[in-house]
Design a protein that fits this description.
The protein is α/β, with parallel strands linked by helices. The protein contains 14 helices and 22 strands. Helix 1 (26-42) packs across helix 4 (126-137), helix 8 (256-270) runs parallel beside helix 9 (284-292) and helix 8 crosses helix 11 (338-351).
């Protein structure tokens, strides 16, 4: 079969993603299907599940992907249009040997890509590079395969709701015209309480707002709905339904690390002493709260695939990221499902007094910067972090280098890390008060300048 070279920018650490018509097209989907099917087949597998999101380019990419998988001898189960966690669930429910989701996640409408599972685990890092090498060598298996349509939506909705036995709440929901719209609508129809649905129609042009709930501007409609209808809280989703955002009844964002702190209580009541994992960008208040609740706080690298692998290693029942990926192994499968996380959030709120705002206020008070992302050449970004780590080590600073450099001082902490997916550096500072925050910013700025990097706005 014909060898194929992927555009060098699209084989990323956690997934494959590019601009349709420029760096990504149906020929790439066909080659990926052949390479992935060959990888699964050589491991003795045969069944692969496939699903796709609501982007305009997704049906064509999905069809080409299925052709590629079938040509490598795979039995392909086409789960249809839905959120990424539906694909993940399908791999478990159908006992498949792998799965591929056609999705551009929260990127702009002209992007698309693929998230993958090998067996029941995430496919990332070296495995993605190996797919590129298989395609470039044309080293495909060739065998007759087949494809069938399998509808798991009812089973998926039933499974999401299986763990909910909480009381009624009044909630606004905003899938942002993303792929979670239909499933969220079905779930909400079966919940007690009063519910308002926004932007539930799946539309790959995202006419209402960009589907990224970690950007506060994208939550304005949700805030307005909560205020107008006098609701208890609002929940938003990203374009493919694996990241959650939330606001309380006072219109304040409840960020990913705060959600994890709220969710941790019930989990640790049922699994005392368990490890709970959060990424290096998370608030110290979260790690302190996990310890207060009797759990083992674990700080780990940013990246949903890396977190999932760490969960398996540590047998952790719960993990999360600032970006809104929440992973439940407790009662669930360990993958990032924002719809399931939303149901567990409602359950946690009803079990802890029906007031998300009060639960937010009960967390330690801190002041912090948002996540600051600023350009740095690809060839420089990791080198800059290495230079900073070397200076910190020489000065005997209190820091962890689990993912970049997170420096602890009497005032709080600051973080500098290189993005795995873009030519940017990422920074964040957190302190108990504004004076301490200023001192942390000064320390971080000094390190950036020492490596010849212009500090970003916000520092």
């Amino acid at each position: 079969m014909t060898a194929h070279r992927f555009h060098p920018t699209i084989l990323r650490e956690y997934d494959i993603r590019g601009i349709v018509g420029e760096t990504l097209g149906e020929a790439d989907a066909l080659a990926l299907g052949r390479a992935f099917g060959s990888m699964v087949g050589r491991e003795g597998g045969q069944k692969v599940c496939v699903a796709y999101d609501g982007r305009l380019s997704s049906p064509g990419l999905e069809a080409a992907l299925v052709d590629g998988l079938s040509s490598a001898g795979m039995s392909v189960e086409r789960l249809g249009l839905g959120p990424t966690p539906m694909l993940y669930y399908g791999v478990f429910d159908r006992d498949a040997d792998g799965g591929i989701m056609v999705t551009g996640s929260h990127n702009p409408p002209d992007y698309n890509g693929f998230k993958m599972m090998l067996g029941k685990e995430a496919c990332f890092g070296e495995a993605i590079q190996a797919l590129g090498r298989i395609a470039e060598a044309g080293d495909y298996l060739s065998a007759p395969g087949q494809a069938s349509i399998v509808d798991i939506k009812d089973r998926y909705v039933d499974r999401i709701l299986a763990d909910f036995d909480g009381g009624p709440l009044n909630v606004a929901w905003d899938p942002g015209n993303g792929a979670a719209g239909e499933i969220v609508s079905r779930v909400v129809a079966r919940l007690p309480g009063r519910h308002i649905l926004l932007n539930a129609e799946i539309d790959g042009t995202f006419p209402a707002h960009h589907p990224d709930p970690t950007v506060e501007a994208n939550l304005e409609q949700l805030k307005q709905a909560v205020a107008t209808h006098d609701l208890d809280l609002g929940i938003g989703f990203d374009g493919d339904g694996d990241r959650i955002g939330a606001i309380d009844n006072r219109g304040r964002v409840v960020w990913g690390d705060q959600l994890l702190a709220i969710l941790a209580r019930q989990v640790l009541e049922e699994v005392p002493g368990a490890p709970i994992i959060a990424d290096v960008k998370a608030s110290q208040g979260l790690f302190d709260r996990i310890a207060e609740l009797g759990g083992e706080p674990v700080m780990w690298k940013t990246g949903h695939s890396l977190i999932k692998s760490k969960m398996l290693d540590m047998k952790a029942p719960l993990a999360g990221e600032m970006s809104g990926h929440i992973f439940f192994k407790h009662r669930y499968y360990g993958f990032d499902d924002a719809i399931y996380a939303a149901i567990r959030l409602l359950l946690a709120v009803t079990r802890q007094g029906d007031d998300l705002a009060a639960l937010r206020d009960d967390l330690p008070h801190v002041v912090n910067t948002p996540e600051l992302r600023f350009d740095c050449p690809e060839v420089r970004k990791f080198v800059v972090v290495e230079e900073v780590v070397a200076r910190l080590r020489a000065s005997d600073a209190d820091f962890t280098d689990v993912d970049g450099a997170r420096v602890q001082t009497e005032d709080g902490w600051w973080l500098l890390r290189a993005s795995n997916t873009q030519a940017v550096l990422v920074a964040r500072c957190e302190a108990r008060d504004e004076a301490g925050l200023s001192r942390l910013k000064e320390s971080l700025v000094a390190e950036l300048k020492a490596s010849g990097i212009k500090p970003p706005d916000g520092l």
